Amino acid sequence: MMSVKDTRRDILPKPPWLKRRIAAGESCREVEALLRGSTLHTVCEQARCPNLGECFARRTATFLILGEHCTRNCGFCAVAHGPVGPPDPEEPLKVARAASRLGLRFVVVTSVTRDDLPDGGATHFARTIREIRREIHGAHVEVLVPDFQGSAEAVRTVVLARPDVFNHNLETAPRLYSIVRPQADYRRSLQVLEQVTRMDPGIPTKSGIMLGLGESLKEVEQVFCDLLQVGCSMLTIGQYLQPSREHLPVLRYIPPDEFDALQDRALQMGFLRVASGPFVRSSYHAEDLFESSS
């Protein structure tokens, strides 16, 4: 059987359901120009998201804060790993102003992992949430955070800023962590979500997993159980796509009907809201998921 470690093989050809027309147009160009002019980054671009054209055409984007280089080097992720500098102190305000210019009422903010910072960047997240709220009256903010190396104090810093959704992805089954997320820890990630629920039960927690790396259905359902046990109420399920031949290979493309079945199963098990499909990503149509769970 092919191993998930075998990254030297050719990239599997995509099945018909993963082929889509790339959106373009004036709105895309406007978003790109705004981001360049504000010296801001998006996970849409850095992670080579397949939904970039669609989201930019809708004048929305997921802001990537704390720089564009990650201190970790996960086998699935296209975000660059390399030297990191100090966070830009003006970045929270820049994000808020860019979100305002885009006309966003629901703003999603994520970051690279910054294990070099004492609080993992938690204070920067909190400042960004507050600046968005100051700049855009009535704005909702969803944060997709790293694990902060398990620091309860860092989690508390973000929680006290009261994001409308606190998202932290498990990404895959625990058996695959040593290959997919070697610098992360499955139980630690669950603990992050559990801490949020204990600190402020009014903030819904959200997590996401990707399929196609060799996980079994039993393992996926166990991830669902583990998330529900720590109070997670929102879930995204998507297809892993290999960014380059240097990244982990796709072992299987999951058909749309299986994504539908997993969505039904997750809802039956107790999640309040689930987005499941080949192109689903953590922040894909995040506003719709939030509003439908309110």
Helical coverage, percent range: 25-40%
Gap between N and C termini, in Å? 44 Å
CATH homologous superfamily heading: Aldolase class I
* Strand line-up in the sheet with most strands: 1-2-5-6-7-8-9-10
Counting structural domains, the number is 1
- Give the class from helix and strand content and strand pairing: alpha/beta
Q: How does the major sheet shape up?
A: 8 strands, mixed
CATH class (first level) name: Alpha Beta
Shape: globular
The CATH architecture designation is Alpha-Beta Barrel
Any low-confidence stretches, pLDDT <50, length ≥5?
A: none
Explain the overall architecture:
This protein is 37% helix and 14% strand. By secondary structure, the chain is of the alpha/beta class. The protein has one domain: TIM Barrel. The strands form two sheets. It has an eight-stranded mixed sheet with strand order 1-2-5-6-7-8-9-10, with helices on both faces. It has a two-stranded parallel ribbon with strand order 3-4. Helix 6 packs across helix 8. The longest helix has 14 residues. The relative contact order is 0.14.
Concise synopsis of the structure shown:
The protein has helices spanning 26-37, 43-46, 52-57, 91-101, 122-135, 152-160, 177-180, 186-199, 217-229, 256-269, 286-293; strands at 41-42, 62-65, 69-70, 80-81, 106-111, 140-144, 165-167, 205-211, 234-239, 273-276. The chain is of the alpha/beta class and 294 residues long.
List keywords for this structure.
alpha/beta; eight-stranded mixed sheet; 10 strands
